[in-house]
Each structure stands twice: as C-alpha cells, then as structure tokens.
Backbone:
C-alpha cells in the first residue's frame, strides 16, 4: 500500500524552534534534523499511522509527529 507521507517526503520541513525541540527531546547531535527524520520515516520497519491532522511515525523507540497537510515536522519524542 502506498503511503501519502512517503510519497511527499520531499516536502518535509520544520521551523527553527522545531529543530531545537526535536534535538532536545531526542538528544540528537546531527546537523540536519529533517534529513534525519526522512531517513527514519523511510525505514521499512517504521510504523506510520494517521490520526486526524497528523501523521505519527514510530521507529527506533521514538515517535515523530508530522502535520498531514503542511508536512511540517511538529515534534519528536522518545517512547515512554
């Protein structure tokens, strides 16, 4: 089954505050947060679900939240 999010990965983006929030929440030390998110979302074992206006991607013990209309990465956090 084709996934709308995967078909639109090129549109993925975030805000400056989003970058800070994602790095802090996941303790990431990477230059490009969006590329990191794209790689994670593209993995075959990523579990992608849509609830209302957001996509939720569960992968490697973290959850990435993406707005389904604007493809903005809103946040990401570790699974509790």
Residues:
């Amino acid at each position: 089954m084709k996934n709308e999010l995967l078909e639109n990965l090129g549109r993925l983006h975030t805000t400056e505050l989003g970058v800070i929030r994602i790095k802090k929440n996941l303790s990431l030390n990477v230059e490009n947060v969006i590329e990191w998110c794209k790689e994670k979302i593209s993995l075959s074992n990523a579990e992608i679900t849509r609830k209302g206006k957001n996509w939720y991607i569960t992968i490697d013990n973290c959850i990435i939240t993406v707005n389904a209309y604007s493809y903005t990465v809103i946040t990401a956090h570790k699974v509790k």
About this structure: The domain at 4-78 is CATH 3.30.2310 (YaeB-like fold). The chain is about 30% helix and 30% strand. The chain has one domain: 4-78. The longest helix spans residues 16-26.
